[in-house]
């Protein structure tokens, strides 16, 4: 069976205030063409179909168009909700849409009930594990302390239990939206840390033939059987070096996996430039970036006059301007933002405690801070569901 694995469409999202709707529509066109031209038997979409719980009308219309085009091809599609989606909204009408071969899986309780498709070698069971917010699903899965690994492991126990009841030789595919250990993050994914931990081990997916992952925006291989497709478009300059693709996955009669990357359309190249303003304006080696979307980091010790206006004369698609004057590490003018770069909320809070009282938090106090951050995230998740 040949699968086309994609995820993280984020329909409705902009790139530094530039609408991506046209590029998203072009991607949908490429996806449909790939399904038709490459003999795809099933499409899997591993979450974050939309960028937010209440997407703009234009994004909903594009999603509707995508569903109609996929249904017209007669190729089954399995989708799950991600942490950006409203599971309830995305799942509206799932029972009716199911009849058209579009299978929306947004209910955690149904993770052990697969969509079963068939090829010349027998059945392939597709299990949809929507994004599992630990605080919201811990009771459903009977875990005492909510955490990503605990709820995902419990969901996979249901998958393996159902698979054990099926005919010998039944192959299996799991769709999941999670941060798996070994994956490389970018700046455009929403933090899903709970209890100080965001990642789960890839071994949680043992027992299935292929795990089609979503959430991380870079296409990557965790193991031969556990892969991220990545987002089809860039949503931050941290993705400047990404090659945006989908996975074309062949599952043979024994469940062995072979995979090929299929390129997504590139609306415009990304470039991250660094130097003084005069260096960026004068360097002939930067000519290749003149039509790219540009993030420029200026290292001038004194902020130059009208930097954006001057930059856009040469790089008309400059979208982000960052000031990072070159200073000695002990210079008191080193920016606060730079000192915080790459640090978690927990680490920042612990540093603040150390700053105001002269000693960092002890183990119990670290636990209190961790619980507080988890409570805030859980409250935000509840609000997202209610919207």
UniProtKB/TrEMBL annotation:
Molecular functions (GO terms): 3'-5' exonuclease activity; endonuclease activity
Record-annotated Calcineurin-like phosphoesterase domain positions: 1-217
GO biological process, one term: DNA replication
Record's keyword terms, sorted: DNA recombination, DNA replication, Endonuclease, Exonuclease, Hydrolase, Nuclease
Domain Nuclease SbcCD subunit D C-terminal: 267-355
Subunit and interaction comment: Heterodimer of SbcC and SbcD.
Name of the molecule in the record: Nuclease SbcCD subunit D
Annotated source species: Streptomyces aquilus
């Amino acid at each position: 069976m040949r699968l086309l694995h994609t995820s993280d469409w984020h329909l409705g999202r902009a790139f530094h205030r530039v609408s991506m709707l046209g590029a998203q529509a072009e991607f949908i066109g490429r996806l449909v063409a790939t399904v038709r031209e490459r003999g795809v038997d099933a499409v899997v979409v591993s979450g974050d179909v939309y960028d937010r719980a209440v997407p703009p009308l234009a994004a909903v219309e594009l999603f509707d168009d995508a569903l109609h085009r996929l249904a017209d091809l007669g190729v089954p599609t399995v989708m799950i909700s991600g942490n950006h989606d409203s599971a309830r909204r995305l799942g509206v009408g799932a029972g009716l849409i199911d009849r058209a071969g579009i299978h929306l899986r947004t209910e955690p309780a149904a993770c052990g009930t697969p969509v079963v498709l068939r090829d010349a070698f027998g059945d392939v069971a597709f299990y949809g594990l929507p994004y599992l917010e630990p605080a919201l699903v811990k009771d459903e899965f009977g875990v005492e302390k909510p955490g990503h690994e605990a709820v995902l492991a419990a969901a996979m126990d249901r998958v393996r239990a159902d698979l054990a009841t099926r005919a010998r030789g039944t192959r299996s595919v799991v769709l999941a939206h999670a941060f798996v250990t070994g994956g490389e993050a970018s700046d455009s994914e929403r933090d899903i840390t709970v209890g100080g931990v965001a990642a789960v081990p890839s071994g949680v997916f043992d027992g299935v033939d292929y795990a089609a992952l979503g959430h991380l925006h870079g296409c990557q291989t965790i193991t031969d059987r556990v892969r991220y497709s990545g987002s089809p478009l860039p949503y931050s300059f941290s993705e400047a070096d990404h090659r945006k693709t989908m996975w074309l996955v062949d599952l043979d009669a024994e469940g062995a996996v072979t995979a090929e990357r299929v390129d997504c359309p590139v609306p415009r190249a990304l470039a991250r430039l660094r130097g003084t303003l005069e260096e960026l304006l004068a360097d002939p080696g930067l000519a290749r970036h003149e039509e790219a979307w540009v993030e420029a980091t200026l290292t001038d010790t004194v902020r130059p006059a009208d930097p954006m206006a001057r930059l856009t004369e040469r790089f008309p698609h400059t979208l982000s301007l960052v000031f990072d004057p070159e200073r000695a590490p002990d210079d008191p003018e080193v920016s606060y933002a730079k000192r915080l770069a790459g640090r978690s909320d927990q680490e920042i809070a612990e540093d603040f405690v150390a700053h105001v009282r002269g000693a960092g938090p002890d183990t119990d106090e670290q636990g209190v801070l961790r619980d507080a951050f988890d409570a805030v995230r859980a409250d935000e998740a509840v609000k997202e569901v209610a919207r």
